[in-house]
Amino acid sequence: MTSQKERIFSGAQPTGQLHIGNYLGALKNWVALQDEYEAFYCIVNLHAITLPQDPKTLREKTLDLARIYLAAGVDPEKSTIFIQSDVPEHAELTWVLSCVSRMGELERMTQFKDKGKGNRERAGVGLFTYPVLMAADILLYQTELVPIGKDQKQHLELTRDLAERFNRDFGETFKVPEPFIPPVGASIKSLQDPEKKMSKSDENVNGSIFLLDGADTVTKKIKRAVTDSGTTIEFDDSRPAIGNLLTMYHLLTGKTIDESVEHFRGKGYGAFKTELAEVTIEFLKPFQERVNQYDDATLSGILSTGAKKARSIAAQTLGDVYKKTGIR
Ligand code: ATP
Ligand code: LTN
Asked: What is the pLDDT of residue 42?
């Protein structure tokens, strides 16, 4: 029966620390969609090395991220959780897809421009071909839907272009995936700068609420969050900082946007921030209790079962690709 379900695929990089933006923009939807779809959630360690990583901590962070997926509510009985490098087909398909990708389209990727800091001469080639590896991740599983935050939309469009081009040139091979970008929360902003997205790689840790932040840290970061001019707590395009905090409140409490605005009518920034800190701490508490729910052996069992399942599907797609291209 399960094989009748449509597939979803998503992943996060084992770099930095996961923040509440990653949760609200992506992970929350991974959990919500896992009943309806056959889900594959990957820890994309090969993507991580597109920027320098400390080898010792990369492995630790890879396993920590698996724990975070599980603590967020990804259920290993329903979803396949695995490490990207455990399925070598990801790297193999990347090569084939890189042969149908064009320099021009990769050069237009804003993440490459941002992370390469506009310095083409020094930017890594891996950073440049990063979206091709992401396309391989998705296309290997004949994925229907990809739950992601807004920053990944452009990469998904490239994935669709590559799938369509390959299908046109070599015959129907890949399903062309659709993005799933939540209507609210797809780009949670930095608490220190509402023009920038909350980012794991931001040097200023005060801009992000990390999923493993303790209560005192959460309170301090929210108290220090920048606000706009004005005093009322409501949505207004000219006041992105308060809009961002209200969005977090709405998503964390499950109150509608109207209810959230109503709730703070007549109250000031101080009271609002105090309550936002409380609901954030309340949300993080059970999550943090669950992060160590599995011992190392159980975790490694979950990941190796996941890799086996993922590989059985990935190998079929790659086999088809090799046949269609005359490699095999
Ligand atoms: P970095 O900011 O360092 O590039 P990241 O925070 O984007 O890293 P990833 O592991 O690359 O982290 O992303 C995991 C998922 O979280 C992706 O689907 C991404 O779109 C989503 N995401 C990342 N930042 C945000 C944000 N600020 N708001 C909503 N979703 C986000
Ligand atoms: N590029 C993504 C992580 C990622 C991903 C994927 C997301 C790698 N492969 C496949 C969805 C589907 C990011 O969040 N930076």
From this structure: 98
Q: pLDDT category, 3, cuts 50, 70, 90?
A: low
- pLDDT, one tens digit per residue, over 53-91 is 999 999 999 999 999 999 999 999 999 999 999 999 999
264-278 tens-digit pLDDT: 999 999 999 999 999
Q: How far apart are CA 282 and CA 287, in angstroms?
A: 9
200 is a catalytic site residue: yes
The predicted pLDDT at position 230 comes to 87
Instruction: Respond yes or no: is residue 115 known to be catalytic.
Output: yes
| Nearest Cα residue to 29 out of 185, 171, 157, 249 | 185
Question: What is the rounded CA–CA span in Å between residue 261 and residue 246?
Answer: 8
What topology does CATH give the domain 205-290? Tyrosyl-Transfer RNA Synthetase (1.10.240)
Class of domain 7-181+295-325: alpha beta
Does the CB atom of residue 197 touch ligand 2 within 6 A?
A: no
How far, in Å, CA of 28 to CA of 183, rounded?
Answer: 13
Q: Does ligand 1 have an atom closer than 6 angstroms to the CB of 198? A: yes
- Contact between residue 25 and residue 186 where contact means Cβ atoms under 8 Å apart: yes
Dihedrals phi, psi of 241, to nearest 5 degrees: -70, -45
Q: Is the pTM of this model over 0.85?
A: yes
* Ligand 2 atom nearest residue 47's Cα: 8
Angle among Cα 120, 125, 131 to the nearest 5 degrees reads: 105
Q: Is 96 in the pocket of ligand 1 (CB under 6 A)?
A: no
Report which protein residue has its CA nearest ligand 1's atom 8: 200
- Please tell me if the CB atom of residue 45 comes closer than 6 angstroms to any atom of ligand 1: no
What pLDDT does residue 4 have? 83
Active-site residue among 115, 220, 309, 324?
A: 115
Domain boundaries, the chain: 7-181+295-325, 205-290
Is residue 1 scored above 80 in pLDDT? no
